[in-house]
UniProtKB/TrEMBL annotation:
It comes from Natronoglomus mannanivorans. GO terms for molecular function: ATP binding. Residues 4-232 form the ABC transporter domain. The lineage of its organism: Archaea, Methanobacteriati, Methanobacteriota, Stenosarchaea group, Halobacteria. Keywords: ATP-binding, Nucleotide-binding, Transport. This is ABC transporter ATP-binding protein. The keyword Transferase does not apply.
Length: 232
């Protein structure tokens, strides 16, 4: 079963000369798999993640996410898919500075029409799950980098997505804090989620099941690994 599929995807930006950020990418990501994306700066990693995360649409080609053809959806339907099928974690956390941790985690549920009481209960549950049950009232500037990223992970999970996308989630964290975030993702993988993670760090990428190497907007090669595997 396929979680995400890309078929001959091209994404072209026009800033004077056209730039093919992705140039004919085809890729199948099975459900419940753990994929790392590597490649030099400008190779198209962020563009790929934005397309899979339904934050943007391709110039050419087909993308399906959770069995749905993204290119055939309206903007509104894509927003819905983004909430419920894919959760997105960014390198820079992207939390709302004026909202508390709890409010940040609860926010995506607003767009799903979930009632206030249920939103809060669910957000509390997720904060507990990432080990921040006692930090719900703190604003982002009152939290450490690792705590902020854990809030961001909780927010990405609040609508129970099957697929979790992470763009350099440990890029702004020290090694030990990064390790805590990685083990959160590995827990999610072990519980059946599909993980797709961009990283610059080979030792992080080596923990996935496969590494997709991008170069100049194309897949250079795919490396199959043992991966952390589900615990047995
Ligand atoms: P990576 O994440 O691997 O660094 P990106 O996907 O950010 O690569 O970028 C791939 C190429 O597309 C680069 O040449 C970049 O300059 C270009 N690019 C990315 N986003 C945009 C944009 N919004 N407008 C114009 N060019 C872009
Ligand atoms: P990353 O470190 O994840 O590769 P970048 O610093 O390359 O991120 O880019 C951050 C974001 O800025 C990208 O996701 C892309 O949407 C946008 N971007 C990248 N290159 C350009 C560009 N040349 N023009 C406009 N926007 C760009």
């Amino acid at each position: 079963e396929t979680a995400v599929s890309l078929s001959n995807v091209r994404k072209t930006y026009h800033l004077g000369e056209p730039v093919h950020a992705l140039d004919g990418v085809s890729l199948e990501i099975p459900r419940g798999s753990y994929t790392a994306i590597m490649g030099p700066s400008g190779s198209g990693k962020s563009t790929l993640m934005h397309l899979v995360g339904c934050l943007d649409t391709p110039t050419e080609g087909e993308i399906t996410v959770g069995g749905q053809a993204v290119t055939e959806l309206s903007g509104r339907e894509r927003t819905e898919l983004r909430g419920t099928e894919v959760g997105f974690v960014f390198q820079t956390f992207n939390l709302m500075p004026r909202l508390t941790a709890l409010e940040n985690v609860a926010l995506p549920q607003l767009f799903q029409g979930i009632g206030a009481g249920e939103r809060t209960d669910r957000a509390r549950e997720l904060l507990e799950r990432v080990g921040l049950g006692d930090r719900g009232d703190h604003r982002p500037n009152e939290l450490s980098g690792g705590q902020r990223q854990r809030v961001a992970v909780a927010r990405a999970l609040v609508n129970d997505p099957e697929i979790v996308l992470a763009d350099e989630p440990t890029g702004n964290l020290d090694t030990e804090t990064g390790e805590q975030i990685l083990s959160l993702f590995e827990d999610l993988y072990a519980s059946g989620h599909t993980i797709v993670m961009v990283t610059h760090e080979p030792h992080v990428a080596q923990r996935a099941e496969r590494i997709v190497h991008l170069l100049d907007g194309e897949i250079e090669r795919i490396e199959e690994l043992e991966g952390v595997g589900p615990e047995t």
